[in-house]
Amino acid sequence: ASASAYTQLSTSFTTGASTRSVTIFVHGWYGQPTYFADDLSLSGPPGSGGGTTTTTNPPPPPTTTKPPPPTTTTTTTPPPATGPEPGFGPYIDITRGTPLLQDVAKATGQKYFTLAFILGDSAGCDPSWGGTIPLTDPGIMSQISALRAMGGDVAVSFGGAQGPYLNQTCSGQAPLAAAIEKVIDTLGVHHIDFDVEAAVPIDPMNKAIAQVQHDRPGTTVRYTLEIQADSFGLVPSIGTDVLSNAVADGVKVGIVNPMLMDFSSSGEEWGQAVIEAAQSTLKQMAQIWPSLSTAQLDKMFGGTVMIGDNDTGPVFSLADGTTFINWANSNHIGFVSFWSVGRDNGSCSGVSPACSGISQSNFQFTSIFRGFTG
User: Fold this and answer.
1) pLDDT band at residue 63 using 50, 70 and 90 as cut-offs
2) Quick check: 146 and 155 in contact, CB under 8 A?
């Protein structure tokens, strides 16, 4: 690149009167390739502490062509995650445009969200938001950046109630793994969720996920799966079969996250039916991971409810939310969530993507779920 492609940067600072030395750290932007800086200088009068102003230049760069600055089309591998997924990550339909992540964070203090949903687009094996919005949509990217500037972060969910799933449009393990890694690299995420609500090629999917975890160390995986009945647990064909195959294919499963909504109930109060469905799922998990203790299984377990009016008629009330979080805390489970942040208000009635359908204040379920302590 020519010299005109580079810009001299400067900053200023004031030290205390007794400061004798300063250390200047020079680093690149998050997730970008290695680069070299030179021509560093430090100027200004020394303080009264008796120190002197010195300039320390880094070692000269290798005698190779200086790499050009990264462009907007460059994607990079994020560093490994520093730990497990945060315990509360409500889903938000990021394709709706509102509410904005940073606005919810300001209003509630909640700074971790699950963005829904990544699907295949018209090109097939190419990830996009809702199957229609480009992965690098400026509005969505600016929300993520604003949230991260506040100290927050996001997980990304693949799948959902509608298709086409990448699992269905990508022909096999390698293309699917590449598509998932494109999302990870482009968005800089460490936590990914697979929301399975339709028949998918299970084995290629799980082999691809295992490959992603190998290629992108530190990536945590959450499986969000349908409940058949409160007394039964997960649907076998797209629930327990998915998990058993994941174990066989070497996936490191972080969270098993049943959708505690829209299932067949024995008729008891809905909040209690939700807890019974959770307990039934834990029994299924004990069969899939027989060597794990009860405490270990609890820590692998998550639960996602549908706040307010559910599609099939039941109502998950504010009182049910408190009961569920109390149960989650007493059992020290690993994760809680709900569908969805955009519904966490009482602005309308009935089943709607824009409200819970019940009487409540703005973000009242978020406030209740923030009481989860794990």
Assistant:
1) very low
2) no
